[in-house]
Amino acid sequence: MIKDGIYKRVEFCIQNVLGICAVINSDLKLGVPSSEEEVVEHLVENRILSSEMGKIVKEMRGFRNFLVHRYGKIDDEIAYENIVKGLENFYKFIDEIREFSKSFTKTKHNEQA
């Protein structure tokens, strides 16, 4: 039961990452995506996310899909290793979005001045 809760939390965190990407894509009118993957590509193309982070977000999406649909039996040891290794990626994502937000805010402020 506890491990299911952990899987659900990880799924929720990944979904939030994808949601943030979708909001930025929409708010900045970067194009109408046909998939979550295309949302990420728009952010990479517009230098909101690095290409490395774009790849990581796509991998997160794949892991989320695996957790949601439980393709086959989940090997808890492998899932645990992926979760532990992947935790740092959430912080990297936050840092990249924070840096974009700062530069975007600064640009908007300068345009209004």
Characterization of the model:
- This protein is mainly α and 113 residues long.
- It has one domain (2-112): Up-down Bundle (Four Helix Bundle (Hemerythrin (Met), subunit A)).
- Helix content is 81%, strand content 0%.
- It has helices spanning 2-27, 36-45, 51-69, 76-112.
- Helix 1 crosses helix 3 (51-69), helix 1 runs parallel beside helix 4 (76-112) and helix 2 runs antiparallel to helix 3 (51-69).
- The protein starts with a helix and ends with a helix.
- The model has no long low-confidence stretch (mean pLDDT 89).
Concise synopsis of the structure shown:
This protein is mainly alpha-helical and 113 residues long. The chain has a single domain (2-112), classed as bsu32300-like (Four Helix Bundle (Hemerythrin (Met), subunit A)), CATH 1.20.120.
Give the overall shape, derived from the CA principal axes.
elongated
**Portion in helices:** over 70%
End-to-end Cα distance: 55 Å
Overall structural class, as computed from helix and strand content, comes to: mainly alpha
In the CATH scheme, what's the topology name? Answer: Four Helix Bundle (Hemerythrin (Met), subunit A)
**What is the tally of helical segments?**
4
Regions with little confidence, pLDDT below 50 for 5+ residues:
none
The sequence of SSEs as H and E is HHHH
Q: What is the assigned CATH homologous superfamily?
A: bsu32300-like
Rg from Cα? 16 Å
Number of domains: 1
Give the DSSP E fraction (strand runs of 2 or more residues): under 5%
The tally of beta strands, per DSSP, is: 0
Any idea what the CATH architecture is? Up-down Bundle
Mean pLDDT: 89
Largest sheet: none
Supply the CATH class: Mainly Alpha
